[in-house]
Amino acid sequence: MSDNNIGKAFVNSVVSAFFGNWISTIKTEFEIAKIELKYKAAELGKGIGMLVGAAVFGFFLVLLLLTAAVAGLSTALPVWASALVVAGLILVIVLILGIWGAYKVKKNKDIKPERAINNIKNSMPF
User: Fold this and answer.
1) CA distances (Å), 14 to each of 7, 9, 121, in order?
2) In this predicted model, which residue has the larger pLDDT, 11 or 45?
3) Which range in 2-6, 15-19, 46-50 is most confidently predicted, on average pLDDT?
4) Is 1 or 113 the better-scoring residue by pLDDT?
5) What does the alpha-carbon distance between residue 97 and residue 53 come to, in Å, rounded to a whole number?
6) Residue 100: how many CA atoms within 13 Å on its side-chain side?
7) Residue 113 CB-density burial (10 A; 0-12 exposed, 13-18 middle, 19+ buried)
8) pLDDT over 70 (residue 126)
9) φ, ψ at 48 (rounded to 5°)
């Protein structure tokens, strides 16, 4: 082997050793970022689903409150009072779903995989 080939082989091995670990770290962090994004997207979807559920129950709440108001004006106390009790229960459901869904969305709205990005930044050899 000539000196030129030995020099090329040495440079190739040094470059491979230097960047090989870094490239494998980037691949690993990319896989971690995919898992992190999948988890955050699932949590975001759950939060949005809960907000949609709260909106649907809120719609029914308005219908029940209107029904209770009509029943209260046209009949005796027991009919509209029972409608208000049912509306109160639906209001509790709307509040629970709304608060829980908003919490989930607020917690997971930034879907950037911070941990993976920081690990890649910290592992950069240069």
Assistant:
1) 11, 9, 22
2) 45
3) 46-50
4) 113
5) 7
6) 15
7) buried
8) no
9) -65, -40
Residue with tokens 């870094």: 22
Provide DSSP, 36-56. Answer: HHHHHHHHHHHHHHHHHHHHH
The letter for the amino acid at 19 is: F
Residue 96 — very low, low, confident or very high, per pLDDT cuts 50/70/90? very high
Residues in the chain: 126
Q: Are the C-beta atoms of 51 and 101 separated by less than 8 Å?
A: yes
Please tell me the predicted confidence (pLDDT) of residue 85. Answer: 73
Give the HSE-up count for residue 111: Cα atoms under 13 Å, Cβ half-sphere: 13
Q: How far apart are the first and last CA of the chain?
A: 33
Q: What is the dihedral sign for C-alpha 51, 53, 54, 60?
A: positive
Is 64's pLDDT higher than 80?
A: yes
